[in-house]
Every structure is written in structure tokens, then in C-alpha cells.
């Protein structure tokens, strides 16, 4: 597995140590073929190997996710949220942990809150490609900020 990281991403040993220390379960994966399929999925989205390496350095657990889980998140971001290829690439490179979030427990409820603010799905897709909104906590981040702005006289449509 260590050699696979070095070879696949042209990483130095200290970078591989960082990945493994942040997600030691990667050492327990049966084959590197499993990780290769995930890297190929990301590259098929137009993300080059150096950006994929950056994603893995920032969120190594990404490679431990089930392939069906990754595919479902990509499909949801594209089909349900309406992200175009560029927005999807940008969102994933900025926030690779997005792929590890629960659809029902995080992504869909966050989109619902943003829609309540008056944002359309295309607007949410655009904002998400530039910032980490979908990985923000509704209760600890989005709602308090909204409440603060509304308490100071802004309407929900102005906040959106």
C-alpha cells in the first residue's frame, strides 16, 4: 500500500506517512485495485492525478469509502443538485470530505436549509463549487449565522 501511494501519486515517504497516520484503515484494504478504482472514478470526472493526490492528502479516508457510496454521491451532486462537471470538480477538490458525508443525514438537509433561504439548486451548486457549504453543520454553523443576520435586520432573501 505504501509503495502504491508513492507510485500512483508521486508522493514522498513523509506524505504517505501523513496519509496512513490520518487513516490507518487504508493499510487494511485487501488490494490496491480497490483504491485504483476510486482514483479512476475521480480522474474520469476530469480531476488530474495531482489534484486527486491533494484530495487524498486532505481526506485520506476517501479511499476507504465503498465505491457504490462514492458513485451515489457523485450522481446526487450531478443529477439532483445539478452540478455541471466544472462545479463538481471544483467542489470535490476544495472539499473532498464532501464524498464522505451522509446523503440523508447531511447533504440533503443542508440543501433543504439553503432552499428555505431562497436559493435555487443551480445557485446552491454554484456556491458549493466555491465554498464548503454542504459540509457545514446546519445547527452549529448555518442556522446561527442566518439567525445573526436576520436579528440584525436582513431578510432571508437578502441573506440568500
List keywords for this structure.
160 residues; mainly alpha; 10 helices; elongated
3D structure, described in words:
This protein is mostly helical and 160 residues long. It is built from 10 helices and no strands. The protein has helices spanning 2-9, 13-22, 32-44, 49-58, 67-80, 85-94, 103-116, 121-130, 138-151, 156-159. The termini are far apart. The mean pLDDT is 86.
Give the arrangement of secondary structure elements.
Elements: H1 2-9, H2 13-22, H3 32-44, H4 49-58, H5 67-80, H6 85-94, H7 103-116, H8 121-130, H9 138-151, H10 156-159
Q: Separation of termini?
A: 45 Å
Largest sheet: none
CA radius of gyration: 17 Å
Proportion of residues in β-strands = under 5%
The counted number of beta strands is 0
Share of helix, binned: 55-70%
Q: In sequence order, what are the helices and strands, one letter per element?
A: HHHHHHHHHH
Q: Report the uncertain regions.
A: none
The number of helical segments is: 10
* Average predicted confidence as pLDDT: 86
Category by helix and strand content? mainly alpha
Shape: elongated
Question: Could you give a quick summary of the protein structure above?
Answer:
This protein has 160 residues and is mainly alpha-helical.
